[in-house]
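Tokens for Pilus assembly protein Flp/PilA. Go.
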Amino acid sequence: MQMSKIMQSIRRFARRTDGASGIEYAIVAAMVAVVIAGFMGDMNNGLNNVFNQLKTALPAASTSTGGNSGGTSGGTSGGTGG
């Protein structure tokens, strides 16, 4: 008797389709998340490379000697004056 109730419950569960579209959306969302995570890893490496290059270039630029830091303080501001 108990076994037939279990089998009926299993058959009823197998026939139900009301949650199928929700599961399909969850699977698609999971696949999109996996693809995005894969690209984020590549993008993360690229950004790290850019910032590492900047980090090594900035101290060299700030400690460079030579060049003239002066300039002229005079001059005219554009326009026709009229």
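Residues 2-58 form one domain.
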